[in-house]
Design goal:
The structure is a single chain. By secondary structure, the chain is α+β, with helices and mostly antiparallel strands. It has a domain at 105-249: 2-Layer Sandwich (D-amino Acid Aminotransferase, Chain A, domain 1). The chain is built from eight helices and 16 strands. The chain has helices at residues 8-11, 54-69, 87-93, 118-127, 166-173, 175-198, 249-255, 271-289, and strands at residues 14-18, 22-26, 32-36, 41-42, 45-46, 97-100, 104-105, 108-115, 129-130, 133-134, 144-150, 153-154, 162-163, 201-213, 216-220, 229-233. A hairpin with a 7-residue loop joins strand 12 (153-154) and strand 13 (162-163). Helix 2 runs parallel beside helix 8 and helix 5 packs across helix 6. The two termini are 16 Å apart. 36% of the residues are buried.
Length: 293
């Protein structure tokens, strides 16, 4: 089982933010150390059992993509500082952490969809629209969209994000920034989708976060990980059927079999479900990025 991650109290760091699955600390030079734990959240509830290798895998995938998209958009990643924490801590945190510039976060999830799935499919099925805009009739679950759709949402750190229209986005952040967010998100998606196709993977949808660093728009948080994107095996995809993603799907499938009201505390997971979930994350790193972790 994965060891318990050391806390800020163990290393004398100031806590910047504790999220459901990541802890962020302030370093002595003002930069941030974002540590991806092995905690897992499902249905907005943090479960009691960690998923071994999850934090390390997500961090290495993000690093891989940040390096390959920096020509499109600068990001918050900074060079590592192995003197920032005690050596025994760095040995545990090195592969699961990123040193980042502090950004003024734009509280918008910039979602790009290439296929109908999740909340997008439910909206289309019930209303014939996607993010409030009409789509052609006759599409089915997992169908490819006629063209990529940018469907922003307001960010909610404690619950579900709320989908908004592009007009609402422009009213919230201004037309110029809204346009830049949309153009950049679409360009990033096209870059990643092309790579994924070459690896036999469909990038169905993804979400980005952006922030201002020194007056410059930058990518922040994570990018093209199984926690922020739906990746499907192209050989298994079937239009009209729900596709299986390279993520925590084994956990969701198990939880749906329980008589659980999806409120804290979350139930414990069987060892087989934990192992299957670890395997999905590692397979995503290998299949998409060529990372043997």
């Amino acid at each position: 089982m994965t060891p318990v991650l050391m806390t800020a109290e163990d290393v004398g760091l100031e806590v910047f933010r504790r999220g459901k699955v990541r802890d962020t600390f302030v370093l002595d030079d003002g930069s941030l150390l974002m540590v991806a734990t092995d905690r897992l959240s499902a249905f907005d509830v943090v479960l009691p059992d960690p998923i071994p290798e999850k934090g390390r895998t997500l961090t290495q995938i993000s690093r891989w993509w940040f390096a390959r998209t920096s020509d499109i958009m600068a990001n918050h990643l900074l060079p590592d500082r192995d003197d920032a924490v005690p050596p025994e801590v760095w040995a545990e945190w090195r592969e699961r952490s990123m040193r980042c510039s502090r950004a003024e976060r734009i509280d918008i999830e910039c979602v790009v969809r290439g296929h109908l799935s999740g909340s997008g499919w439910k909206e289309y099925r019930d209303q014939g629209t996607l993010a409030g805009e009409p789509l052609p009739a006759g599409l089915r679950e997992s169908s490819p969209l006629p063209e990529l759709r940018f469907t922003p949402a307001t960010k909610n750190d404690t619950g579900h994000d709320v989908n908004i229209s592009r007009a609402d986005l422009a009213a919230t952040v201004g037309a110029e920034l809204a346009g830049q967010l949309e153009r950049t998100s679409l360009e990033l998606f096209r870059r990643a989708a092309e790579h994924c196709r070459s690896r036999g993977i469909i990038l169905a949808d993804t979400k980005f976060e952006f922030g201002m660093i020194g007056g410059r728009l930058c990518l922040i948080d994570e990018i093209f990980t199984p926690d922020s994107s739906r990746f499907w095996d192209a050989a298994e995809w079937r239009e009209g059927h729900a596709a299986v993603s390279f993520d925590k799907q084994p956990v969701r499938d198990y939880l749906e079999t329980l008589d659980w009201d999806k409120r804290p505390p979350g139930p414990q997971l069987p060892p087989a479900v934990i192992a299957a979930t670890t395997a999905r994350y590692l397979e995503a790193a290998r299949r998409i990025c060529g990372l043997e972790l």
